Amino acid sequence: MTSTYVALDVEATGMDPSRDEIIEIAALKFDEVRVIDQWQTLVRPKGSVPFNITTLTGISNEDVQSAPRFDEVAESLRSFIGNLPIVGQSPQFDVEMLASAGLRLKNLRYDTFALATILMPELPAYNLATIADRLKVEVDSSHRALADVETTVEVFRALVALLSEYDLGTLDRLASLASVSRSPLARLFSQVRRDLQRDTGTTAGLGPLAHALAQASGIGDNRGPEAVFLMQRDRPERLEPSGEPGLVDLDEISSWAKTDGLLANAFPGFEQRDEQIS
């Protein structure tokens, strides 16, 4: 990931852009390793802040009483975002709230919710806290705009890191499917593919494990991932039933998936994953 992005979050008096008002906005300009700049403000609505929103965010009517109106900060926010891709947790809501207030943004949008559903289909839910917990990203429970965008930045980086573990062929397919469905993520998938190809020098659709197997077998990288399964292997001695059933030693089986286990010895490039031995 070598591009610059803007993580954006809006807190509002409700969830209806046609009726509710913005009370806080935060944005972080960031790249792969650092936060480049920060933009944040409270916004004074025409109406009052509902009690349930104050309970959720901690933002009270007193907090926004002396804050600027949205039209006083809109151009500053537009200038901060520029033409950069917007990253957010379901950013459609934030963009619609801004549009309803008078600031229409046509920037490319990368949705951490949508990306997480693709990369982690096993999650029980896809709210920001659940995604962050799965990725071991620390979450600030204050539910303020700046805290949310800080979490979003780390979640997005972690999701891109997961995406970078895919082989080039899979990234090609993801980009193609996303393009057919007109998802903005097609651009991200293609970008990660280019970065991976540049960093690894690999030209075929082989991931790290398949690449290691291909090199070990001498078939090379230029025959595609299917060729890995054509390599010659020594066949183990055929197992025959003994007729004496016994208990399975679960600890022994778990040890096979450890760094020094049978799988590591059998497959070059094997990496231990806690999920395999838990």
If you had to describe this structure to a student in words, what would you say it looks like?
With 278 residues, the protein is of the alpha/beta class. The chain folds into two domains: 5-163, Ribonuclease H-like superfamily/Ribonuclease H (Nucleotidyltransferase, domain 5, 2-Layer Sandwich), CATH 3.30.420.10; 211-230 and 250-278, no CATH class. 44% of the residues lie in helices and 11% in strands. It has 13 helices and five strands. It has helices spanning 51-57, 61-64, 70-81, 91-101, 112-119, 128-134, 145-163, 168-180, 185-200, 208-217, 250-255, 262-266, 274-277; strands at 5-12, 22-30, 35-42, 86-88, 109-111. A hairpin with a 4-residue loop joins β2 (22-30) and β3 (35-42). α5 packs parallel to α7 (145-163). The relative contact order is 0.10. Mean pLDDT is 87; it is low at 222-231.
Chain-wise SSE layout:
Blueprint: E1 5-12, E2 22-30, E3 35-42, H1 51-57, H2 61-64, H3 70-81, E4 86-88, H4 91-101, E5 109-111, H5 112-119, H6 128-134, H7 145-163, H8 168-180, H9 185-200, H10 208-217, H11 250-255, H12 262-266, H13 274-277
Parallel strand pairs: 1-4, 4-5
Antiparallel strand pairs: 1-2, 2-3
Helix pairs in contact: 5-7, 8-9
